[in-house]
From TrEMBL:
It comes from Cuculus canorus. Belongs to the class I-like SAM-binding methyltransferase superfamily. Trm1 family. Its EC number is 2.1.1.216. It catalyses: guanosine(27) in tRNA(Tyr) + 2 S-adenosyl-L-methionine = N(2)-dimethylguanosine(27) in tRNA(Tyr) + 2 S-adenosyl-L-homocysteine + 2 H(+); guanosine(26) in tRNA + 2 S-adenosyl-L-methionine = N(2)-dimethylguanosine(26) in tRNA + 2 S-adenosyl-L-homocysteine + 2 H(+). Keywords: Isopeptide bond, Metal-binding, Methyltransferase, Nucleus, Phosphoprotein, RNA-binding, S-adenosyl-L-methionine, Transferase, tRNA processing, tRNA-binding, Ubl conjugation, Zinc, Zinc-finger. One of its GO terms (cellular component) is nucleolus. It is an enzyme of class 2 (transferase). InterPro entries: SAM-dependent_MTases_sf, Trm1, tRNA_met_Trm1_C, Znf_C2H2_type. One of its GO terms (biological process) is tRNA N2-guanine methylation. This is tRNA (guanine(26)-N(2))-dimethyltransferase. Residues 108-128 form the C2H2-type domain.
């Protein structure tokens, strides 16, 4: 039964108190005497010590002005404030007075919870509404269900619940900002589907099922899609979305197997398997060729299960959205989840990708598996990592050796990975290219990590992803993939062929179709155990020979190292200057103003200084701009009108003239 504080009308509350309409005198305001026969009655929602029994007219005003006015409305009912001792209150020195003051509460009409504050009660009811829980156990007439909005993405329709973009307020989370992430994963799966057919793929955290539906709708018979979620409401929503996209559903739970056909599809390729299990359980029970993990927050809790049963040369992709810890805003959480010591640096996004890869490598090595990194992307909302699994202790050892510590200078932000080996160095500062430790007092560097020190991209795999993006018309992801290809090759050229990359290297061996890439073991069919071992060994040899061709680790932000009082060159021109100086250079997706290059930081600053022009701020009210002496000398010459002399001053003539005019010890300004 519903609580007595939940009523539809004030008259119902008065009947509960034993009052009848017209029983109490209405002539109180006319100074007339009360009825002699009127009896004192208690309030049904207040204890005796809170509100003593009184006559009907006082009780009516009490019910109307306190309980009825101070209430929360929902579906025609009012949850009136209740002072009865049904809400536990901590004992207080004040005693009964404190109890009567703090014991006021409301009873929820949906879940019968007791909540103290009115604002909290309103928020509690709104959370029920956002989750679609609007049917009260006390209301005989069913409340209407929350309306569901239908969204469309990549020719796939999905129904979403209210507040679908806020994970705390809904069971089925759908973030439209992660569309780029979903397209990257789709392209990776499409590349794998071209290698071997059919492949079994798992979306471990389905939510609305949008990702698995896109896989099944576009790749058809090349994939066998399994969408999993542990929430019952999400599983129901996934089934409805399959019906919306005319897909069959095979519903499996852990206890029993149940097949249910939905939609008009008749082929087996249109069947999507929907499971209601914990993600760790389903990955322990079954084997997959492609696994995608996208939990809310960190994914380290699911890595061991993902690598335990994933098939050889399969792909594991994971999306981490705990950017507060990965981007060094909550460093203690990064230490707790990933076992890494980090600080905020200019290259914090690439640092986040290498942190995740280090955790992935350790999890794979515990299962006697190695990894080959195909893709690592860190953007504003997420960190995406796609790796290929190489089964065997040798690949596991090779991958584990690529986990190293990073020495980071806090003065100039120079960085370098520690050398291999277990011997303790007498002076680890010698590994840094900079000399900040000798010129600055105290300790100038910190040790970060452990981090993944290998490559972050596979050029051949990225080119094939770009081809698949063009084939399926994914326009939003194509600029990012082109940037990734240039970053993987560490080049500024943007010429991409439109023909299929699969046509270049095709072979027929033992009746099995093999596609051999140009670099590493990026794509193979599974022709057998012995053949796989040979392919892995040849891939390892190619990787060792191509280590020198890997893209440089980390990048520099051109604004971070700019010189005060100087105008920097345009970014594309600066890349050309670095390239002409003999260094490998490219832009990076991690930072729009970042430059990935193998040039040392000192040489980077030298070239930046060489091609920067002075900023002339004549009549500046805030004070003069402090520039180097040669720049100030150039300003003096320019003020004199000798522009040609300034242009030809390559050997410091103007600086010498400036030194003669201003002897040593004179202030520059």
């Amino acid at each position: 039964e519903k609580h007595i504080s939940i009523q539809r009308h004030l008259a119902d509350l008065e009947k509960l108190a034993g009052l009848k309409e017209g029983e109490f005198p209405v002539a109180v305001s006319q100074n007339t005497e009360l009825h002699v026969t009127d009896e004192k009655k208690p309030c049904p929602l207040c204890p005796e010590e809170k509100f003593k029994a009184c006559y009907s007219h006082k009780l009516h005003r009490h019910l109307q002005n306190l309980h009825w006015k101070v209430s929360v409305e929902f579906e025609g009912y009012r949850m009136c404030i209740c002072h009865l001792p049904c809400h536990p209150v901590k004992p207080n020195l004040v005693g009964d007075q404190a109890f009567s003051k703090m014991g006021a509460h409301y009873h929820c009409i949906i879940c019968s919870a007791t909540i103290t504050r009115r604002t909290d009660m309103i928020g509690h009811i709104n959370r029920h509404v956002n989750k679609g829980e609007t049917e009260s156990r006390f209301i005989t007439v069913l409340a209407p269900k929350a309306s569901r909005e239908v969204l469309k993405e990549s020719a796939t329709d999905v129904q979403v619940l209210p507040n679908y973009s806020t994970p705390q307020k809904t069971d089925s989370y759908f973030n439209p900002k992660m569309k780029l992430n979903r397209q990257l994963i789709f392209c990776a799966l499409a590349v794998l589907a071209e290698e071997r057919k059919p492949i079994e793929c798992l979306d471990a955290f389905g939510a609305t099922g949008i990702m698995g539906l896109q896989w099944a709708k576009h790749l058809r018979s090349s994939v066998r899609v399994t969408i999993n979620d542990c929430n019952e409401n999400s599983v129901t929503l996934i089934q409805e979305n399959c019906l919306l996209n005319k897909m069959k559903v095979k519903l499996n739970t852990r206890e029993d197997d149940q097949d249910e056909a939905m939609g008009d599809g008749e082929e087996n390729s249109d069947t999507i398997e929907v499971t209601k299990m914990d993600a760790n359980v389903i990955m322990h029970l079954r084997s997959f060729d492609f696994i995608h993990l996208d939990p809310f927050g960190t994914s380290v809790n699911y890595l061991d299960s993902a690598f335990r049963n994933v098939r050889n040369l399969g792909i594991v992709s994971l999306t981490s959205t705990d950017i507060s810890s990965l981007y060094a805003k909550a460093q203690h959480i990064a230490l707790r989840h990933y076992g890494c010591n980090i600080v905020r640096t200019e290259y914090y996004r690439e640092l986040a990708a290498r942190i995740v890869l280090a955790a992935v490598t350790r999890a794979a090595a515990r299962c006697n598996k190695g990894i080959e990194v195909l893709l690592a992307v860190a953007l504003e909302h997420f960190v995406l990592v796609v790796v290929r699994v190489l089964r065997g202790p040798s690949p596991a050892d090779d991958s584990a050796k690529k986990i190293r510590y990073l020495i980071h200078c806090q003065w100039c932000e120079e960085r370098i990975f520690q050398k291999e080996g277990n011997m303790v160095e007498e002076n680890p500062y010698q590994q840094l290219p900079c000399d900040c430790h000798g010129s600055m007092p105290g300790k100038t560097a910190v040790v970060l990590g452990p981090l993944w020190s290998g490559a972050l991209f596979n050029t051949g795999f990225l080119r094939r992803m770009l081809f698949e993006a063009v084939q399926y018309g994914l326009d939003e992801v194509q600029p990012l993939l082109k940037t990734l290809v240039c970053e993987a090759e560490c080049t500024t050229s943007k010429h991409f062929s439109t023909h299929s990359p699969y046509d270049e290297n095709k072979q027929e061996e033992c009746g099995v179709y093999i596609k051999t890439p140009k670099t590493s073991a990026e794509s193979f069919l599974v022709p057998g155990k012995r053949k796989c071992e040979e392919l892995i060994r040849s891939a390892a040899k190619r990787q060792k020979s191509e280590n020198s061709a890997e893209h440089p680790a980390f990048y520099y932000n051109i604004h971070r190292h700019s010189i005060k009082g100087m105008n920097m060159p345009k970014l594309n021109k600066f890349l050309t200057y670095l390239s002409e100086a003999g260094y490998r250079v490219s832009r990076t997706h991690f930072d729009p103003m970042g430059v990935r290059t193998n040039a040392p930081l000192a040489q980077f600053k030298t070239i930046l200084m060489k091609y920067s022009t002075p900023t002339y701020t004549g009549g500046q009210a805030e004070g003069p701009v402090h520039l180097p002496e040669d720049v100030q000398a150039a300003e003096q010459v320019q003020a004199a009108g000798d522009a040609e002399f300034l242009e030809d001053d390559k050997s410091g003539v103007a600086a010498a003239a400036f030194a003669e005019e201003y002897p040593p010890g004179c202030e520059a300004d």
